[in-house]
Q: What sequence folds into this?
């Protein structure tokens, strides 16, 4: 199956990580700048055909999204068959991001980027009421969609219970939680569970968590964007691991 991806980060990341899956690149004929020339040279060095097209054709290919003058036709690639495969292959304690009800593709793309930066092993979401890996997600992820496994599961609560059976502590971020994440005690292996901004975690998801923590807020805003909150939680786990390694 093929899909169109767009934007310089997304297209360049796919060529560098798996050029064999890129069938052709479409470059705005009006882009004669260094960035456009470098992308053309990179694609051609990998044996990928580059087609010069007008901006209107690119607009049509990506549905009017901001494409920066570049798009590519790529083969859909699977990063892993299952969450079990990923966790079985992990050489360090599990760090997983679970998204409950995040339907906005921009938020999902940003979460994938944050998870990749924090060294998470996977991002998990339910098959229903969640964003899929669309071209918008891939562009916003800025290359992270090529490296960060995104696993969509049929039953999220059951998946959380299976994580617990692996001795992975399931921690939900909830503004109403009694303890904040900076003082809460938790083991090294963690699955952070976050809901969509404004909606939070669903009842069953919340009840399945081993613990709930809040992100302490000092300003006037009451909540954070889910990708920002994901970054706070994941990097707190990373900070604790680094501190433990120094002790």
A:
């Amino acid at each position: 199956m093929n899909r169109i991806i767009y934007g310089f980060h997304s297209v360049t990341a796919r060529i560098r990580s798996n050029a064999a899956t890129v069938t052709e690149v479409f470059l705005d004929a009006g882009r004669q700048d260094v960035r456009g020339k470098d992308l053309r040279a990179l694609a051609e060095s990998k044996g990928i055909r580059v087609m010069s097209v007008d901006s209107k054709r690119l607009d049509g290919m990506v549905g009017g999204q901001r494409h920066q003058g570049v798009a590519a036709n790529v083969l859909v690639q699977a990063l892993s068959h299952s969450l079990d495969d990923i966790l079985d292959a992990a050489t360090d304690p599990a760090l997983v991001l679970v998204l409950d009800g995040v339907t906005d593709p921009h938020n999902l793309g940003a979460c994938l980027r944050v998870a990749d930066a924090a060294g998470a092993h996977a991002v998990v979401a339910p098959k229903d009421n969640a964003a899929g890996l669309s071209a918008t997600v891939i562009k916003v992820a800025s290359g992270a969609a090529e490296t960060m496994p995104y696993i969509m599961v049929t039953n999220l609560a059951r998946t959380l219970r299976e994580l617990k059976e692996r001795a992975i502590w399931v921690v939900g971020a909830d503004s109403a939680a009694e303890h904040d994440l900076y003082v809460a005690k938790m083991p090294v292996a963690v699955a952070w569970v976050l809901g969509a901004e404004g909606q939070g975690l669903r009842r069953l998801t919340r009840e399945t968590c081993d613990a709930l923590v809040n992100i302490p807020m000092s300003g006037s805003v009451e909540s954070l964007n889910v990708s920002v909150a994901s970054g706070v939680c994941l990097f707190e786990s990373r900070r604790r691991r680094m501190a433990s390694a120094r002790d």
